[in-house]
Amino acid sequence: MRSLTRSLWCVAFTWLCCGQPMMAQQTKSDVLAPSLKLTTVSGQDAVHVIGRHGGTEVKVRLTDQSNEPLSGIMVMFTLPEQGASGGFADGSKRLIVHTNEAGEAVARGFSPNTVLGRFSVSVDASFQGLTAHTSVAQINVAGSKSAARGISSKMLTILVVAGGAATAGLIASTRKSEPAAAVPQPTFGPGITGTSVLAGTPSIGPP
């Protein structure tokens, strides 16, 4: 009985000394390290027509190591200082937005500058010493005169078709009003008359 009790105490002591640290080590390895992640929701490869305001806005989502959204976190959008770029509502190159309950931040009020080409919007977030970064590709393109005046391509097509139809109608009415051209009659030498063909019995003039 005494030896059995001693064996049980040995097993318990071994588990306390060796088993618990191993379990603690495994639990520690299973815990994910804190981290931030920025994901682009919209605005990737967006096309901006020079001279127009609005367009596709850059939207990002901020999540933690468990892919859970983080709200109330500061996110900064930065535009290039030179070359193809643009500005936000106040004309600045930087915009600070806080994430909503879904972890999303939207860069509103962007307008392209007058330089053609591709550029990237830099997006950064920071929280409790952690940082996250991503870039969103954009492009500035030239707009036609009709686009700059606010005339859509569909409306332009309608106007072109209507103008073509009006021109065709004018040409047709002009042709109707013109007198028919006289058909030249054949001429013959002296003493020779023309030959006429009528329905019924044909008759031929004198030789």
Spatial gap, N to C terminus = 162 Å
The ordered H/E elements are HEEEEEEEEEEHH
Spatial order of the strands in the main sheet? 2-10-9-4-6
What is the fold named in CATH at topology level of the domain at 37-147?
Immunoglobulin-like
Structural class: alpha+beta
Unreliable spans are 13-29, 145-161, 191-204
How would you describe this protein?
Helix content is 28%, strand content 28%. The radius of gyration is 43 Å and the shape is elongated. It has a domain at 37-147: Immunoglobulins (Immunoglobulin-like). The protein is an alpha+beta fold. The strands form 3 sheets. It has a 5-stranded mixed β-sheet with strand order 2-10-9-4-6, with no helix packed on it. It starts with a helix and ends in a 30-residue tail after the last helix. A hairpin with a 2-residue loop joins β9 and β10 (130-141).
